[in-house]
Design a protein that fits this description.
By secondary structure, the protein is mainly alpha-helical. It has a domain of about 60 residues: 434 Repressor (Amino-terminal Domain) (Orthogonal Bundle), CATH 1.10.260.40. Helix content is about 55%, strand content about 10%. It has six helices and two strands, in the order αααααββα. A two-stranded antiparallel sheet has the order 1-2. The chain is elongated and about 70 Å long. About 10% of the residues are buried.
Length: about 120
């Protein structure tokens, strides 16, 4: 799957694939295959791309999964914050949205009952 967000961000900054590849210390064809989605981009490469393009990771990140959540862990301790990526199947999200809809309807019905008393 082509990385359209990455492509658009690179173009908007006026950078070529070769310039990005050089900043990532890789050859042009390796970067080109990543941008085309032929090679998976590792999270550390996504983070470097975010810094190179001066945009938030969330703005350029595209996964092979249908839904992805990016969580920046800024917990304190003797380690630096880490980035975790979690994939959630679309069907699970749909089920949760349906449950939320039903709960909202139930709340509305209970409010009506309370007003009647």
């Amino acid at each position: 799957m082509e990385k359209n967000k990455l492509f658009e961000a690179r173009k908007s900054k006026g950078l070529s694939q070769l310039q990005i590849a050089q900043k990532l210390n890789m050859d042009h064809s390796s970067y080109q295959r990543r941008e085309k989605g032929q090679i998976k981009i590792h999270i550390t490469e996504w983070e470097k791309l975010s810094k190179i393009l001066e945009v938030p990771l969330e703005e350029i990140f595209e996964s092979e999964e249908s839904q992805v959540f990016i969580w920046k862990d800024n917990a304190s301790g003797n380690y630096q914050g880490t980035t975790n990526i979690y994939s959630v199947p679309e069907s699970l999200l749909e089920n949760q949205q349906e449950l939320i809809r039903k709960l909202k309807e139930e709340i509305a019905e209970l409010k009506v009952l309370l007003k009647q008393k």
